[in-house]
């Protein structure tokens, strides 16, 4: 068993509070990604879990046992670092076997175990190589094999893929996921890359300013972000500012900077009141685009709320730029002095150019609303 409990974890460096009151339970065999921007406290949290930093306050338990004050070598954890930290004077095999040597494992057994781990990460053919002659992706595999060789209860990964190019990183994400499924051990993975977290994680813990803001399955945190920071951090979106004009039992009507009223269906009409300031999130994948003379009449802002709880909002704007991004095309559209963007796959992109008038439409049920303080409005 390798369940981890962080309870009220805090870390100060002098007067600087790097991690504040982090509490979470990581299940046995789970892969948890700590996701956040630089300086959010995620790596400091991992280093405390590894025994490389001592908490200022709080408790760390592994399998119910308090390890808060234990040094790294007395914990059943192993860490894969961002810079790989391979020994240049040892062969690949010797690097992988090093931790086993420190554990007092006999020479033949540790060489056998090291070869087994190199086979697992597809590096067996490089056992006798100088690690400094390896590519970045190969070095990362060796570092991973070295950490797995000591058979840890918990594997900690501190931005291990950040030094790899996009293709190698994506390949390693798949390999890490497969290795985790095979070993069924507890992994805690730190990253600033949202795509990486969504690919790897059973659950994602989002950190900001030293706080663990939200923990949940990838789909949960994306569909139901707790606040505006999470909504903006997990993917590109359009934030449209507005003021509530009026509410009814089934909808909130918001006057926006787009020069149009946006209608948002609600089952909780008391969540907002007339005059409240709100930010509306319009995700690019939820926006439909077509020529300006299609769909709704130009002076019609929204159809009434339908029996299924949906409503169509629509606004006309001018294409400002067209950006091709490989398989997708991003349209930046100017509307009443502000800009929104929509994305389409290349095959569905249409033939719009800068200067064209187009209509953007969306279902009000796809809109998320946030208050001035950034908290999510429960509609």
From TrEMBL:
Segments forming domain ABC transporter: 4-234
Quaternary assembly: The complex is composed of two ATP-binding proteins (WtpC), two transmembrane proteins (WtpB) and a solute-binding protein (WtpA).
Keywords per UniProt: ATP-binding, Molybdenum, Nucleotide-binding, Transport
Organism: Haloterrigena gelatinilytica
Record GO terms (molecular function): ATP binding
Family statement drawn from the similarity comment of this UniProt entry: Belongs to the ABC transporter superfamily. Sulfate/tungstate importer (TC 3.A.1.6) family.
Name of this protein: Molybdate/tungstate import ATP-binding protein WtpC
Major subcellular site: membrane
Top-level EC class: translocase
Location in or out of the cell: Cell membrane
InterPro entries, per database record: AAA+_ATPase, ABC_SmlMolc_Importer, ABC_transporter-like_ATP-bd, ABC_transporter-like_CS, Mo/tungstate-bd_C_term_dom, P-loop_NTPase, Transp-assoc_OB_typ2
Catalysed reaction, written as an equation: tungstate(in) + ATP + H2O = tungstate(out) + ADP + phosphate + H(+)
Pfam families in UniProt: ABC_tran, TOBE_2
EC number: 7.3.2.6
Region spans: Disordered: 291-312
Membrane topology type: Peripheral membrane protein
């Amino acid at each position: 068993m390798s369940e981890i409990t962080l309870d009220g974890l805090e870390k100060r460096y002098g007067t600087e509070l790097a991690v504040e009151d982090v509490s979470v339970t990581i299940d046995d065999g789970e892969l948890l990604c700590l996701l956040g921007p630089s300086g959010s406290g995620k790596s400091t949290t991992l280093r405390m879990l590894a025994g490389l930093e001592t908490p200022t306050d709080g408790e760390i338990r592994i399998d119910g046992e308090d390890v808060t004050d234990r040094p790294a070598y007395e914990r059943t954890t192993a860490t894969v670092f961002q810079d790989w930290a391979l020994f240049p004077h040892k062969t690949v095999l010797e690097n992988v076997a090093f931790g086993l040597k420190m554990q007092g494992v006999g020479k033949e057994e540790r060489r056998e175990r090291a070869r087994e781990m190199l086979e697992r990460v597809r590096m067996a053919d490089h056992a006798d190589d100088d690690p400094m002659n390896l590519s970045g992706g190969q070095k990362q595999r060796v570092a991973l094999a070295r950490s797995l060789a000591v058979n840890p209860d918990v594997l900690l990964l501190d931005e291990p893929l950040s030094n790899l190019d996009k293709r190698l990183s994506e390949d390693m994400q798949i390999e890490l996921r497969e290795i985790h499924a095979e070993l069924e051990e507890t992994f805690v993975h730190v990253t600033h890359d949202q795509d990486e977290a969504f690919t790897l994680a059973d659950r994602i813990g989002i950190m900001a300013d030293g706080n663990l803001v939200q923990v949940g399955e990838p789909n949960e945190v994306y569909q139901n972000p707790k606040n505006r920071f999470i909504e903006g951090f997990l993917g590109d979106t359009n934030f449209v500012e507005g003021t509530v004009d009026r509410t009814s039992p089934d909808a909130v009507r918001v006057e926006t900077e787009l020069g149009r009223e946006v209608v948002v269906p609600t089952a909780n009409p008391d969540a907002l009141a007339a005059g409240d300031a709100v930010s509306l999130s319009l995700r690019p994948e939820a926006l439909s685009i077509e020529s300006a003379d299609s769909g709704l009449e130009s002076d019609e802002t929204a159809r009434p709320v339908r029996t299924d709880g949906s409503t169509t909002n629509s606004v006309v704007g001018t294409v400002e730029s067209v950006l091709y991004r490989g398989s997708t095309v991003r349209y930046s559209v100017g509307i009443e002095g502000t800009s929104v963007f929509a994305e389409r796959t290349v095959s569905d992109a249409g033939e719009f150019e800068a200067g064209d008038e187009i209509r953007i439409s969306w279902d009000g049920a796809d809109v998320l609303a946030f208050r001035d303080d950034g908290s999510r409005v429960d509609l």
